[in-house]
Structures are given as structure tokens and as C-alpha cells.
Amino acid sequence: MVGFTRCAGQPGLLFTVKNSFGQTQQFLPDSAHNKPEKITWNEFHQRIDRAIKLLQTKELLAISDSDHVNIMMCLNTIFLNDSDKKIKDARSKKLLSVAQEKDYRHNIAKVYPGWSFNRGMGQYYPQIKMELYGTPNLYATFVISK
Hints:
By secondary structure, the chain is of the alpha+beta class.
């Protein structure tokens, strides 16, 4: 449902659109929970390698929820750091390629059909409390340390 609110001091000319395009946030992490997971480069590469292997060898329905969370967090981290050459290494490019070949962004909705749009027109999957693409909250990403 789209709701409109008249802006103060304006005689009906300006409106603020609330909850447009179905963008109702079902999981709003508080500041204590909206923190990216900190991992090392080695662990990030291990997670990417696992994600690639799973996407290449299993059907999406056969992949566990925790592995889908990992895949989404890896994809979000790569997506949000697109200009960082260190993150866009050969492993990351391979994951992006495999995810595209598998049409992960579209087909994951068949695994978790109760999704909704998140900020930035990505997807939010309430069954696993995870976002994919768009402008995900910090909890849906990794911060990689040396």
C-alpha cells in the first residue's frame, strides 16, 4: 500500500511516498545488530570458494540456509565494493560469473518465495533474515581485515 504524507508548509504540492513499490522493511536491525561481520582475506576467499563449489555442484534447494546466507553476504560485499580492485580479484569474479550462470538473483526467490524488496530494490528474504543486492544493511556484508 502506498501512503502519502503532506509536507509541512506546502499547500498540497509536495508529498512524501511511504512504503512505495512494496518496500516494507520486515527486519530492521538495531544498531547493535546492524554491524558487518569482520573476517580475514583468507576466510573471505574460503567462503567464496565454498560458495562457488556449492553453486556449481548443487541445486539451490539442496544448499543449506546458512550457505545461502554466506553466498548472499559474499555477493553483497563484492557488489558494494565494486571499485576496490583487491576485492574484485579472480575468485570474486568467478563467484559473480557462477552466480550469473545459475541466475542466482532470480532463482533464489524460488527457494525463499516470501521475499520482499529491500532498500535500493534488492531482495530481503525473511526466512533467513538476509538481504541480497540493492543497498543491504551492514549485517548483510563482510568487512575484510588483513
